[in-house]
Amino acid sequence: MLATLKAWAWRLKREVLALWIAARSPDTPLPARLIALLVAAYALSPVSYTHLDVYKRQRLARST
Question: What's the pTM?
Answer without folding.
Answer: 0.52
